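Ticket #4471: structure export looks truncated?
Reporter: QA, pipeline team
Priority: medium

Steps to reproduce: submit the single chain below to the structure queue and open the exported record.
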Amino acid sequence: MAAAKLSRRLRAEGSWGEVDVRPVTLPGRLRGWCRNRQRVGMLQVGRTGVIVAGVFGAAFIGYCIYFDRKRRRAPDFRVKLRERRRKQKQQDKANDCIGKLPDLKNVEAVQKFFLEEVQLGEELLARGDYEKGVDHLSNAVSVCGQPQQLLHVLQQTLPHQVFQMLIQRLPVVRQRFLAGMNAQNLVDDDVE
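Actual output as written to the record:
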């Protein structure tokens, strides 16, 4: 009704000039009913959503507790856990040098790796930790550009038993490095 009067008035004036447009207000009782209806609807959806979320959350936590108890009470749980941890330690120990393998295309990274490994190996040998010292020295020999000269120097400076450990360890370390290089090449090929 108000829209019809407004359009007639605008047609009569011929322009949109100064038109007094006010928002439509509802009568008091109707206005209160609409406001209350919106509040009630929002509260009902909010309460229902919270209740549903709480029920599902409690069910999930209950399932987690049930599954954890079932898993822990299994007769072979501890045996499997120890076995898994032992295998993980062996795998970490075997892959120790592969994880630190530098980018062999970057000369500076290889030189830095070589110097760090020689330094760590010397420090560990000075402390008496021959196993780890030999590991680091064998890593250095594996990335060295002239391994024969380095082995000759190490033969003159290291005790005979430690040098024999180094010689025995070299084939294993070289295989690890070859595996690491192959893995690096595969990653580089995937990137390109």
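Status: closed, not a bug. The export was complete when the record was re-opened. Leaving a note from the reviewer for reference: The CA atoms of residues 17 and 47 lie 50 Å apart.
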